[in-house]
Write a structure and sequence with these properties.
It catalyses: pyridoxine + ATP = pyridoxine 5'-phosphate + ADP + H(+); pyridoxamine + ATP = pyridoxamine 5'-phosphate + ADP + H(+); pyridoxal + ATP = pyridoxal 5'-phosphate + ADP + H(+). One of its GO terms (cellular component) is cytosol. InterPro entries: PM/HMP-P_kinase-1, PyrdxlKinase, Ribokinase-like. Helix content is 39%, strand content 21%. A 10-stranded mixed β-sheet has the order 3-2-1-4-5-8-9-10-11-12, with helices on both faces. The chain has one domain: UDP-N-acetylmuramoyl-L-alanine:D-glutamate ligase. Helix 3 packs parallel to helix 4 and helix 5 packs across helix 6. Strand 4, helix 3 and strand 5 form a beta-alpha-beta unit. By secondary structure, it is an alpha/beta fold. The protein binds adenosine-5'-diphosphate (ADP) and 4'-deoxy-4'-aminopyridoxal-5'-phosphate.
Amino acid sequence: MCDSTPRILSIQSHVVHGYVGNKSATFPLQVLGFEVDSINTVQFSTHTAYKHIKGNVLKNEELDELIDGLTLNDVDHYTHFLTGYSRSPDSLTKIAEIIKKLRSKNPNLIYVCDPVMGDNGKMYVPDEIMPVYRDVVVPLADVLTPNQFEAEVLTGLKMTNFDDALTIIKALHDKGVKTVVISSTDLGGEKLMIGLASNGVSCYKIQVPLVDTNFTGTGDLFAALFLAWFHKTGSNLKLTMEKTMSTLQNIVQDTYQKARAIQPQNKIPPKLKELRLVQNKDFIENPMITITAEEIRKKMVD
Ligand SMILES: Nc1ncnc2c1ncn2[C@@H]1O[C@H](COP(=O)(O)OP(=O)(O)O)[C@@H](O)[C@H]1O
Ligand SMILES: Cc1ncc(COP(=O)(O)O)c(CN)c1O
């Protein structure tokens, strides 16, 4: 355990079929050279955009027990902690305790928090989870990766233009977050999806062509790739955004094209849109930068 391999504890959902949560994050992280220990907050047959939702949610005592086992066996030494989809406020409170515990073992631990709550104006976890993220978990994060909706909900502010976006980013920095990354916004209108990233010194904008369908698991993949490239580039924010977005675009485009080959018209059902991670392993390992980030504003914090 004393080698230089980065080691992650990832607490996210698990699905039997398809790619969200730990299923979306673990494979790319392993391909990029990370040891990944995963705890599954839920085990569902599929993600929740499918018609039938079946499976179980991890109980708090079960989460405690798993962490206890890691501690008793002295294998709870991590360089990174990554969290995503959680369904209960209590489990989030537990996550806050776990961060503190892991930091007592490694004061340099990097915590990447994806505050998974919803998308396109709608919550898909219970509403009570929001204040726990806002007041307890977010202030402990080194890196926060909300989408636009989640950033708005956390700050109580609306994003209708870039000035609003910068105000929201500043509000999240003010909560103590060092690196704020908004994985997607609709500021690019109908044709472009725009992501933003700020380390308080520089803020970057990166834009990609909007593919005409909703994907699931892309946010989880984004957070995992961001974590990996932020580590591998020595916290180079511009390069991290470029590698992360280029990889996502390759996977999203490939997934879309294959789905459209089967279903040329109308809405694509979830099972045809599962992210093609395995098939894009080489690109994940060695991404070609196809999209560049542009600096839009310097110095967000004094
Ligand atoms: N429809 C889409 N068109 C193009 N890229 C997409 C699309 N959906 C997701 N992505 C890619 O996935 C990333 C994360 O997506 P996002 O929607 O923010 O995740 P989530 O809302 O699931 O947290 C985006 O930055 C983008 O690169
Ligand atoms: C079980 C589960 N886990 C995670 C997510 C989050 O997916 P995304 O990466 O698209 O935010 C979802 C989306 N509803 C889900 O159903």
